[in-house]
Design a protein that fits this description.
single chain; 225 residues; mainly alpha; Multidrug-efflux Transporter Regulator, Chain: A, Domain 2; 2 domains; two-stranded antiparallel ribbon; 10 helices; MerR family transcriptional regulator; DNA binding; MerR-type_HTH_dom; DNA-binding
C-alpha cells in the first residue's frame, strides 16, 4: 500500500508550483467538499496520491482558468463519475463508447475457418480429458457432424471449457451457457426469418457481435457489483 502523506508533506509536493498554498486553504477546500482526506485514529489528516492529483487539479483550475469553486466541484463530480470534463455552464457529457477488446467485431465473426477434427484431435488441441469431452457432448455443448467430425466452433468451445475447468467449473456447470445460447439463437432466428443470402450473413454477424457485447457487459457488471 502506498504511503499516505501528512498535510505538511502534501504542501511540500505542491508549494513550488503553488506558493500561496497553506494548510488553512487545504482545510477550507475540505470543508467545501472538494477534498476528502482520511484521518488517523488520532484524528490527523492523511492524503493519498489521488488527493495530490485532485488538489493539483483544483489549484490549476483556479489559477489558469479562473474557475470558481462551484464550477470546479461540478467538474470534479463529472470526472469522479467517469464523464468528460464539462465546460463552465455546460452539462457533463458521457464519454464516447469504446469497443470492448474482448468482443469480436462483425467482420471477424463472418470469417469462416475451414477445419475438420476427429474427437481425439479435438481433445488434444483443446487439452480436454476424455471424461470432460464426453460430458460436453452429452450436454450438447459439443456436436459432431454426421461423420463424427468437429469444426472450428467446436474447438473454440472446447478450449473455453478447458480453461473454465481450471477454475473448477465442470461440464455440468456449463449447461447454463448452452441453454442461454439456445434462447439467443431463437431470438436471432426470429429477426432473420425474412432475410436471405449475403444480407442474412451480414446481419447475422452484426447481431451476433451485439449479443456477445451485451453478454460480456452483463457479466462484467454483475461481477463488479
Amino acid at each position: 500500500m502506498a504511503a499516505r502523506l501528512t498535510i505538511g508533506r502534501l504542501l511540500a509536493r505542491l508549494t513550488d508550483e503553488f506558493p500561496d498554498l497553506t494548510p488553512s486553504k487545504v482545510r477550507f477546500l475540505e470543508a467545501e467538499g472538494l477534498l476528502t482526506p482520511e484521518r488517523t485514529p488520532a484524528g490527523y489528516r492523511t492524503y493519498s496520491e489521488q488527493d495530490v492529483e485532485r488538489l493539483h487539479y483544483i489549484l490549476s483550475a483556479q489559477r489558469d482558468r479562473y474557475w470558481p469553486l462551484r464550477v470546479i466541484k461540478e467538474a470534479l463530480d463529472a470526472l469522479d463519475r467517469g464523464l468528460a470534463e464539462p465546460e463552465p455552464g455546460a452539462l457533463p457529457q458521457a464519454p464516447v463508447p469504446v469497443a470492448d477488446p474482448d468482443v469480436p467485431d462483425a467482420a471477424t465473426l463472418r470469417t469462416r475457418r475451414p477445419l475438420t477434427l476427429t474427437g481425439p484431435e479435438l481433445r488434444s488441441a483443446s487439452g480436454l480429458d476424455r471424461d470432460t469431452f464426453h460430458a460436453l457432448e452429452s450436454f450438447g455443448l459439443l456436436a459432431p457432424d454426421a461423420d463424427g467430425h468437429f469444426g472450428a466452433h467446436d474447438l473454440d468451445i472446447a478450449v473455453a471449457a478447458a480453461r473454465l475447468a481450471e477454475h473448477g467449473l465442470e461440464a455440468r456447470h456449463l449447461r447454463t451457457f448452452r441453454n442461454a445460447a439456445d434462447r439467443e439463437i431463437g431470438l436471432v432466428e426470429q429477426v432473420l426469418a425474412t432475410t436471405r443470402g449475403d444480407a442474412r450473413e451480414e446481419r447475422s454477424a452484426q447481431m451476433l457481435a451485439s449479443c456477445i457485447a451485451l453478454h460480456v457487459a452483463l457479466v462484467k457488471a454483475g461481477i463488479d457489483r
